[in-house]
From TrEMBL:
Organism: Wolfiporia cocos (strain MD-104)
InterPro entries: CS_dom, HSP20-like_chaperone, NudC_fam
Protein name (database record): Nuclear movement protein nudC
UniProt-annotated location(s): Cytoplasm
This protein's UniProt keywords: Cytoplasm
Region ranges (Disordered): 1-32
Function of the molecule: Required for nuclear movement. May interact between microtubules and nuclei and/or may be involved in the generation of force used to move nuclei during interphase.
């Protein structure tokens, strides 16, 4: 059962680890029950949909739209169909049939700075604050870009937990320093902007 960020913050380190472990196990179970496998990077989603061995491209019925995805065999109920979690760039998204037994779908995100909670909105969600991006991918970036991505991930995580972003933390720190230098000023009601 989901809990609020406040309740999570009140837990001990051990309780949090236990909670995270249980949440990850439940998430893994929910994701494993889906009729496809998926993984993501900040800019893209890759989905693998198993199909009966011997399936040919002409047997497939695949629809990739800005906010909709449907994969199935012609004349049958779709294996997966519904509204996408977020919008994609249709012209840069593709599908291929591998070994006549799996459809690989590559979706290019429009917003390349946001993790998806699920592929289709009606499917179980993952906790995007717990995503650990592949270090090799992060280390491939140049220093400036990597710093920007790490800051963005930190800020996204902070926002989802209702905590201040890195910029807000910097402003709070600057205000504290200023206050220490000027104790005669009452800044208790100061608004940070």
């Amino acid at each position: 059962m989901p809990i609020s960020p406040e309740e999570y913050d009140k837990m001990t380190k051990e309780e949090r680890e236990e909670r995270d472990k249980a949440d990850r196990a439940r998430e893994a179970e929910e994701q494993a029950a889906l009729p496809y496998k998926w993984h993501q990077q900040l800019g893209e989603i890759d989905v693998v949909v198993p199909v009966p061995k011997g399936t040919r491209g002409k047997n497939l019925n695949i629809v990739i739209q800005k906010k909709k995805l449907s994969v199935g065999l012609k004349g049958q109920e779709p294996i997966m169909a519904g509204e996408l979690c977020k919008e994609i760039k249709v012209e840069e998204s593709t599908w291929t049939l591998e070994d006549q037994e799996a459809v690989h779908i590559h979706l290019e995100k429009i917003n390349k700075q946001q993790w998806w909670e699920n592929v289709l909105t009606h499917h179980p969600k993952i906790d995007t604050t717990k995503i650990q991006p592949e270090n090799s991918k992060l280390s491939d970036l140049d220093g400036e870009t990597r710093g920007m991505v790490e800051k963005m991930m930190f800020d996204n995580q902070q926002k989802q937990m209702g905590k201040p972003t890195s910029d807000e933390l910097k402003k709070m720190e600057a205000l504290k320093k200023f206050q220490a230098m000027h104790p005669e000023l009452d800044l208790s009601n100061a608004k940070i902007s």
